Amino acid sequence: MRPGVLLYGPPAAGKDTITAALVALDGRYVPFTRLKVGGGKTSGYRMGTPEQLADLEAHDDVIYRNERYGNVYVVDRPGLEEVTGGGGIPVVHLGQMAGVQVVGDGFPARWACVLLWCSRQSTAERSRQRGDADTVARLAAWDATQADLAAHPHARWELRVDTDTTAPAEAAKRIDTVVRAAVPRS
Q1: What is the DSSP string of 134-153?
Q2: Phi/psi at 76 (nearest 5 deg)?
Q3: At what angle are helices 135-151 and 97-106 packed, to 10 degrees?
Q4: If we measure between CA atoms, which residue out of 19, 52, 12, 13 comes closest to residue 33?
Q5: pLDDT per residue over 59-106, tens digit each?
Q6: Taking a C-beta distance cutoff of 8 angstroms, is the pair 8, 115 a contact?
Q7: How far, in Å, CA of 5 to CA of 121, rounded?
Q8: Which site among 55, 70, 103, 170 is 20 to 30 Å from 25 CA-CA?
Q9: In the prediction, which pLDDT does 186 show?
Q10: What distance in Å separates the CA atoms of residue 129 and residue 124, rounded to the nearest whole number?
Q11: Are residues 66 and 46 in contact, defined by beta-carbon separation less than 8 angstroms?
């Protein structure tokens, strides 16, 4: 079964930064670009329309969708198939435990589930440093992520990384070790 990485954590925990470090470590890692329907930041997303979303839903190709910041974010089957079909290892960013469960169960892969964590203060500082106009909403999402984790005390993580104390390159090496250990040798 093909490998994949699910990165879960609050806003500004380092999902983009660690994904970039994974790509630098091994070019087979491919950042999964979720489909986004709405406005705001476009970088790192495949921007879509309500009609495209309806078409994906009609064909049962939406694996997971969530709404946050007034937008709809989608993990779709065709997008994941495109990455894995080319031999890539998708790196999917999620901010809800439900997403980790649904994507993990809904798309055939050996998913390495990784919890990235940072303090609330770090989320605030990183959000301001990167110029987010919605830092208050990101802090509310941090609170929701903490509550989400507390509601799922038995969640299984192959790896937990505190991004306040772990450099991105080190986090990437640790994730890569977990992914390689899960892939059967031929």
Answers
A1: -HHHHHHHHHHHHHHHHH-T
A2: -115, 150
A3: 70
A4: 19
A5: 999 999 999 888 999 999 999 999 999 899 999 999 899 999 999 999
A6: yes
A7: 26
A8: 103
A9: 45
A10: 9
A11: no
Separation of alpha carbons 91 and 107, rounded Å = 13
47 within domain boundaries = no
- What's the CATH code of the domain at 104? 3.40.50.300
Token pair in block for residue 138: 């990101």
Cα distance between residue 136 and residue 89, in whole Å: 33
Residue 90 lies in a domain: yes
* Predicted local confidence at residue 184, as pLDDT: 61
Rounded Cα distance, 55 and 49, in Å: 10
Helices assigned H by DSSP within 59-117: 77-85, 97-106
Domain containing 91 equals: 3-32+84-182
Residues in the chain: 186
Is residue 15 one of the residues assigned to a domain? yes
Q: What is the mean pLDDT of the chain?
A: 94
**51: part of which helix (H) or strand (E)?**
helix 50-58
Q: What is the largest CA-CA distance in the chain?
A: 49
Q: How confident is the model at residue 185 (pLDDT cuts 50, 70, 90)?
A: low
Beta 71-76 vs 35-37: how paired, if at all? antiparallel
**Residue 72 domain-assigned (yes or no):** no
